[in-house]
Each structure stands twice: as C-alpha cells, then as structure tokens.
Amino acid sequence: MEYVASLAFAKEQDQKDPLRKFREQFLFPQRKGKDAIYLCGNSLGLQPRNVKAAIEQELADWQQCAVEGYWGAKHPWLYYQQYCSKPLTSIMGASQQELTVMNTLTVNLHFMMLSFYKPTKQRFKVLMEAGAFPSDQYAVETQVKFHGFDPESAIIEVSPRPGEQLIRTEDILEIINRESNSLALVLFGGINYYTGQFFDIPAITAAAHRAGAYAGFDLAHVAGNIPVQLHDWDVDFAVWCSYKYLNGGPGAVGGAFVHEKHAGNRGFPRLGGWWGNEERIRFKMEKGFVPKDNAEGWQQSTAQVFNMVSLKASLELFEEAGIKALRNKSIGMTNFLEFLLQQLKGINFEIITPNNCNERGAQLSLLFKDKGKEIHQQMTDAGIIVDWREPGVIRVSPAPMYNSYQDVFHFYEIIANIASNA
Ligand SMILES: *Cc1c(COP(=O)(O)O)cnc(C)c1O
Asked: For this protein, what is the EC number (predicted)?
C-alpha cells in the first residue's frame, strides 16, 4: 500500500475501514473539551460503552436473586469464566477446554510455574528474554529461590547482540540447544513490552521441546493484539492480562491457557481449590481434590463476577469484529504510523520495534537519545495520551478496535509541530 502524509488520505482510509463503527462503542478521555488522541491501549484499553449495562445487570441480579444468582442470574455465576473463555478461543487459537480466566496475570504466572517448573539437580534452569517486564523477572527470581536454587546460575537471559536492540531468534534457539541438559523451562514474553518485538512462539516452543523443557509464554501484550495459535503451536502454557488490548478495565481478571495434553491429565501437579474441582461433586463437600480435566482444573476460588463482567462485555465486541479483521486493520494503521514518523525532520529518535509487520503488533517504540521526557510532556500537553518507559522510550499503539487513521495523522501533526519549534 502506498501511503500519503495527508489528512485527506487518513480520512479516506477511515471511510474504507470495515471496522470504523466500533470506535463509537468506546468512551474516550476528554482533553481540552475534545477526545484525547489515545494511543495507549498497550497499557490500558478504553472503556467499551456496553460495560456499564453489563455491570448493572449483575448488580440487579445480586439484588434480586442473591445466592440464587449462581444458578438463576441472567448469566449464572457458577459458569462465569466460560462467558470469557468462549470468545477467547479464536483470539488465542485454543479450544475452550484449554482456556480459563481467573486471578490476575502475575498470580497465574506463579501458579503455572508451580505446575511446569519442577527443577531437579540436573535440570533446573529457566530461559527468558533479557529486559522482560519486571513482574515476570521477580516471579521467576522468587520461584527459583523458592525451590532452593540460585538465580545467578538458574536464570539464563537472552540479550540482543552488542549494538542491537532486538533479540535474534537464532540466538534464542542456539542457547536453548546449548543448555538442553540443564533447561527445565523456557518462559518468554510474546511481545517484549519495551521494544514491541513479537517473538517466534512456534520456533521457541519446538526448540524447548527438543531440549526436553516446557515452553510457557506471557502474552500480556499479545492478547487481543495479534491472533495466536497456542494449541497448534504446541505451547505448554500461557498467561495474560485483560486490561491492555482486551479492554477489560483496570485490574480485570487474567487469562490462562493449558495445552489439552496437560489439562486433560488430572494427575498433573498443581495447587487446588474448590472451583477447580469437578463440578458434579464440588458441592458434596467431601475430602479428596478431583480436578476438572481441563484448564479450569487450575481455578481455585469462586468466580470473581465483578472482575470478569467488563471483560465479558468487551469480548462481545471482539466476537463481532473478528480478531483477523482487527489484525488486518492494525497492520495498516501501524504501518501508516511508521511511514509518517519516517517523514519527520528535526527530532532525534529511532524506532526500535522491528520494521517487519509480522514481528510486531500495534506498538511502535520510539527511543529518544535526549529530551525524550520533555517531548513526552509536550505531547501530553497537546492532548495525546501515550506512555513513557524508562530509560528512554515512548510507546505508541494505535488499537484497531477504537483508533482511526485520523488519530494517527493528528499524532504525527503534533510531533511535527513540536519538532519544528524545537
Ligand atoms: C502488563 C504486564 C504485567 C502486569 O502483571 P499484573 O500481574 O497484571 O500486574 C506482567 N507482565 C507483562 C509482560 C506485562 O506486560
């Protein structure tokens, strides 16, 4: 596609966009009496308009049904996780048996590691990307210590080569191969939060399996952004949060995938609770934990209805729009953003995200050598919402569900203006 740096071109793309009506389904923060230019869906997705009514429905059912709501609510609370796991099937490329929503991301990462990281004297190492999101680093560090190992020797980080920003797939595979006698788990982000690099999940998974290790992924920046095929790629487990591209709201329930070959095994090690128990006998209140023979067998507590309801409402929009169509629009908008940024003069930054659209999602990371924070402040003052990540990156993410080509163009105009006044 030939891009043109003009508002007329952006308007034309928006008119042709088959998903354009979804923008009206969202509430935009107001800045100076106008919709903000919100390009921060990588951090917190906007509120879908249908969330309010969905919450009010649960309040009304709680009022009217009280305890009978578990069976008698409009959406019975007993099965609440399934209202989210069903629409997630196409987004994650998994069967409903392999998916559930529960807890929050870091909690789920810990629970999955308790099942999939079972270090022995010989096989105790965890491989992850250097510069992983801090919560993931802390989770792995403390798990390793919890099992009595030293993080220094038990955690291997794959880094970019000197002078490079991105991690080469060949380097990841080479280290997995080299450590094949000692590797217990490969735990990678799907997309690195800082650079926006989308890793080769099937290649990493296959290499981990050849080395005799499990492969797990943190898909916080992937879920709702890039469609994946977790089942077919043979991923062992994955976890994600729902408040970024999935628009589930702050602190929304997290998601988890366990491959059918493990989820169907009731003997697979885990920590149990009654909501993971076979439903038929859950309320017999008897001794002996019998996990469900699917991903829900990792659940512990009663469904957190008020933590799931916004996600349930948001996922209705995903079902209607379709993740493939969203991804198509996303590639077009992010490529347009990249094209516009390349036209800028007099402003000193580098786009560190891969330039191949198959190796990135919606986000572009702009690395500033100097004045990055100052420029971020000027953007904020001009009504743009994007985020700043230390030590020097502004992340810009047009979300296909609610952003437009015109948003991207207005963003460009504002930076061009900042650049010309610098
Ligand atoms: C956003 C994000 C988190 C946040 O974890 P919570 O437990 O939801 O607070 C963790 N890991 C990654 C990679 C993230 O992008």
From this structure: 3.7.1.3
The CATH architecture annotation of domain 7-47+322-420 reads: Alpha-Beta Complex (3.90)
As to burial, measured by CB atoms within 10 angstroms (0-12 exposed, 13-18 middle, 19+ buried), residue 328 is middle
pTM of the model: 0.97
Q: Would you say 239 and 218 are in contact if contact means Cβ atoms under 8 Å apart?
A: yes
**Residue 148, exposed/middle/buried by CB under 10 A (0-12, 13-18, 19+)?**
exposed
Q: How close is the Cα of 252 to the center of ligand 1, in Å?
A: 12
| CA 398 to ligand 1 center in whole angstroms | 20
- Dihedral in degrees, nearest 10, Cα atoms 114, 120, 125, 126: -10
Binding site residue list for pyridoxal 5'-phosphate: 105-106, 133-136, 218, 221, 243, 274, 302
Q: Are 191 and 226 in contact (CB under 8 A)?
A: yes
The three-state secondary structure class of 97 is helix
Q: What is the pLDDT of residues 339-381, one digit of tens each?
A: 999 999 888 899 999 999 999 999 999 999 888 899 999 999 9
112, 128, 133, 246: residue to mutate for ligand 1 pocket, most atoms within 8 A of CB = 133
Taking CA atoms only, the protein residue closest to ligand 1 atom 13 is 133
For 225, other C-beta atoms within 10 Å of its C-beta total 29
pLDDT digits (tens, 9 = 90+) for 409-418: 999 999 999 9
CA–CA gap between residue 140 and residue 128 (Å, rounded):
9
